[in-house]
Amino acid sequence: MGVSGDHKDTARRASSDAQLTRSLYIPGSSWLHRLHPLTKLSYAASTALIVFTAPGGGWSAAVLLAASLLLGMLNGLGRPIWSAFLRLAALGGMLLAVHSLFNPANVTPLVTWGVLTVYREGFSYALLVLTRLAAALSASLLLVFSVHPADLMLALAQAGLPPGAIYLFGSPLLLLPQMQARAEAVLAAQRARGLETEGNLLQRMLALFPTIAPLIYSALMEVEDRAIALEMRAFRSTHRKTSLRRLDDARWQKVFRWAMWIAALGVMLIGIWWRLNG
Amino acid sequence: MSLSEQLKKDFSTLTLALMAVAIVLNIVVGQVVSTLKLPVFLDSIGTMLAALLAGPWVGGLTGLLTNLIWGLISDPVAAAFAPVAMVIGIVAGLCAKYGLFKTWWLAALSGVIVAVALSIVAIPVRVYMFGGITGSGADFITAYLLATGRDLFGSVIITVISSNLLDKIVTALLAWGVVKGLPRRFSARFSRAEKVISVN
């Protein structure tokens, strides 16, 4: 995790968070970072809805992709978004290759190399799917890069999500690094006892149970302790709890969130109508 | 028992703690298996365990949340497959409810049922959102089938079922073995585990 130590408090908070949880969050204080988590969540969700349901090809996806990239670059997230896109490159290359060459709808040849012919129909279809995916991905990256998971949990709790649901979202984030460390310890211990974890397929298959069984059993055995610990802290209490974190919201953001949801649902309905009658 | 009473009973504090652990198990066991380089994923072992111990609703929600959290912490593409993970939990829980996890061969059969059921949701997501390609090794099967003249939908059906069948059978067998091996003191806390443990 890259911590830019320009702000001492941010850096300290980030390093302690990095030990506690593993997430894609990038600490910062840009305009985007300061927006309310629900505004960014609504943006990501409505983008996904519009991109996959809008009528008339990939124009809406291309516009939303450009908007998300611009927002990311203006708020110092251009580089991480770009490196996330590079990981998508394998999918993109495969998508373009498979559909340009083998899509059953292919009729118009574009280029021919030897036995391989690139067709127009498959190529434009792959491009459409890729634009949609890139648009949905970039909007969700804006959310996960600029919102600390704890802030997202708090925002959802304030919006009325029950404490049980918040616990199910938040607790795994804290548990994950502990359990990963335990998995490494189990693997090392079994190797020290002579378990073959790098041999042929049969040996690796046989190594599966001794490596994961201790992990699963020890995790399950803790379930009861965790439940008791929760009950002791009045987990089921319906009283309003005070949080150490504070979220800033603004009237325009509330209006904007509603507008995005209404627009997305409208586009979806038009898209359904268009597909039924088009 | 009415549905709301059943839900209240299913989602006790103990069950919530189980779900949180099961979500983490999905992710961590998936990572361990990938370091062993095995031809399975096992990234739904926690979901199946939760389903066997606490029923289809708990199993389904565990699967759904696993992929949403995955999307939040490492790979937004995983969130698109959250409904698929939910189906795995629901179907495994229903199989257990109707006694299909009593013996090892019934558990293997449940694995097959889960693999077929998840395909019903996974195929439209894969075809419509991803154009049949998801950037994994299984894409080569899709490409080969398309090249031999099958349509996209048919190719994806074969790809999804063939790449999931072995994984879900192994996962179901492991989940059955783990629940069978749990101390009675623990499994007695989960009334639904009785369906897996008891012989008749």
What would you say this structure looks like, in words?
- The complex is a heterodimer of chains A (278) and B (200).
- Chain A has ten helices and two strands.
- Chain A has 278 residues and is mainly α.
- Chain A has two domains: 24-147 and 248-277, no CATH class; 162-232, no CATH class.
- Chain A has a two-stranded antiparallel sheet.
- In chain A, helix 3 packs parallel to helix 10.
- Chain B has helices at 3-10, 13-36, 45-54, 56-73, 76-80, 82-97, 104-130, 139-147, 152-181, 184-187, 194-197.
- Chain B starts with a helix and ends with a helix.
- Chains A and B meet through helix 5, helix 6, helix 8 and helix 9 of A and helix 2, helix 4, helix 5, helix 7 and helix 8 of B.
CATH class of chain B: Mainly Alpha
Class from secondary-structure proportions of chain B: mainly alpha
Count structural domains of chain A: 2
Q: CATH fold name of chain B, please?
A: Arp2/3 complex 21 kDa subunit ARPC3
Which geometry of chain A do the CA atoms define? flat
In DSSP terms, counting alpha (H) and pi (I) runs of 4 or more, how many helices of chain B? 11
Please state the second-level CATH architecture of chain B: Orthogonal Bundle
Widest sheet: strand ordering of chain A = 1-2
Strand content of chain A: under 5%
Category by helix and strand content of chain A: mainly alpha
Topology, number of strands of chain B:
0
The low-pLDDT segments of chain A are 1-19
Distance between the termini of chain A: 48 Å
Helix content of chain B: over 70%
In short:
Chain A has 278 residues and is mainly alpha-helical. Chain A has helices spanning 8-20, 31-34, 37-53, 59-74, 78-102, 120-146, 149-158, 163-192, 201-232, 251-277; strands spanning 109-113, 116-119.
